[in-house]
Structure formats: C-alpha cells, structure tokens
Specification:
220 residues, TIM Barrel, eight-stranded parallel barrel, alpha/beta, 35% helix, two-stranded antiparallel ribbon, 10 strands, globular
C-alpha cells in the first residue's frame, strides 16, 4: 500500500472519559480501549469500555483490544462492549475471521503482528486478506507471560516498511513511538496510522504536554 503523508493517530490505553476527550481534542482519530491482558498497561473493565465507546463522537474509531483467541468469544465481547473496531493482539486459534465478519457486520477487524523478524512478513501477508488493517507492534508471544502490546519498545522499522509495501490493507505502526522519533517513524515506514501508549504518558496517565508535543512534531 502507498505511504501516508500524514498518518492518522490512535491513542491507546484510554482509562477514562476524561482521557478520551483529551485525546480527541488534541487530534486523535481513534481510541484504544484495553480489555483483560496477560501483561502490559491500560486494561479497564468492560463496563467502562462500553461507557467510553458510547460517548465517542462520530468520526473517531473505538478500538477494543482483546487477547482472546477464539472467534466466538471475541464476537460475544464486542456485543458486550459495543465498539466499532476489534484489535486482536494475539493469534486467532479457534474460529475464523470470516466467522467474525459475518457475525459483526460493520465492525472492522485489525490484527496485530508482533514484528520479530523476517517471519513477520509471511504472517502479515497471510492474514491481511482477511482483515481491514494490520497493526505492527513490538510484543513477544513466546514468553511464559505473553507481551501483547504497551512495551514501549521499537522493533525493526525496515521490516515494517517492507510489510507496508507488500500489503493491500492499511498498516498501523506501534511500539516505542514518541515526539522525538515520530518523524523518523513516518519517513521510514510510511504507515497509514500511528498507535501510541507509553510514549505519551507520565506515571501511567495521559500527559497532555507529551501528546501536544507529539502532534507538533508530526505536523512539521
């Protein structure tokens, strides 16, 4: 897919309505709402996810981050939370993307690929035809306690660029993005979207100054 000159920005790990509105006011086009995870920052109760998703204005996407690996359970979770986008942070092991598409018309599917090396290229190529977008992150699914996002680490952006060039669906870039490297990220990868969590937080809270600085650098 062609490189994006000005990527969209998704702010992840939203923990309250206040954070949601701060992110939207400063320019976010999508919000990430994290459900139960084996590790990492930002998980909130499904009741709060549903409340925030219901208040997000038209034009701003509500992403539910799920670590579930069963299509039928993901469908049930979406029906409880009422989001318009599902971000699958682990590999789907039971059921299919087709099953989810048929059960959730109008809900977008985003599959996370944790970029670990050349093998991630083939994984992305295999999955892309079945989803609306791919998100490239820096987790590690092979650990005893899986890392499925929010690591604050960069991965090899040259691999991410190759993935973006070979896919026909939008690519989001996540992992260690901050104000001081966002221009490099955009120039190196050319992603459709950027996904932020730890790089715009202080002591776990969304930091308005860091987020403003990020957008300022992005728009230079």
């Amino acid at each position: 897919m062609e490189a994006s000159a000005r990527p969209r920005v998704k702010i992840c790990c939203i923990s309250s309505l206040e954070e949601a509105w701060t992110a939207i006011r400063l320019g976010a086009s999508a919000l990430g709402l994290v459900s139960e995870m084996p590790s990492g920052p930002g998980p909130i109760k499904e009741e709060l996810i549903r409340e925030i998703a219901a208040r997000i204005p038209p034009g701003v996407a509500s992403f539910l981050l799920t670590s579930l690996q069963d299509a039928s359970l993901i469908i049930e979770q979406q029906r409880r939370c009422k989001v318009n986008t599902i971000q699958i942070v682990d590999r789907l092991e039971r059921g299919s993307y087709r099953e989810m598409r048929e059960a959730m018309p109008g809900v977008s599917l985003v599959q996370v690929i944790h970029v670990t090396g050349e093998e991630s290229l083939e994984e992305a190529r295999r999955i892309a035809p079945h989803v609306n977008a791919v998100l490239l992150d820096s987790g590690n699914q092979s650990l005893a306690v899986k890392e499925l996002g929010g690591t604050g680490r960069k991965h090899d952006w040259t691999i991410s660029r190759r993935i973006r060039e070979q896919l026909d669906v939008p690519v989001f870039l996540a992992g260690g993005l901050r104000a001081d490297n966002v221009r490099e990220a955009v120039e190196t990868v050319g992603p459709f979207g950027l996904d932020l969590c730890s790089g715009v937080r202080t002591d776990g809270r969304l930091d308005e100054q860091k987020l403003s600085a990020f957008f300022s650098e992005l728009d230079k």
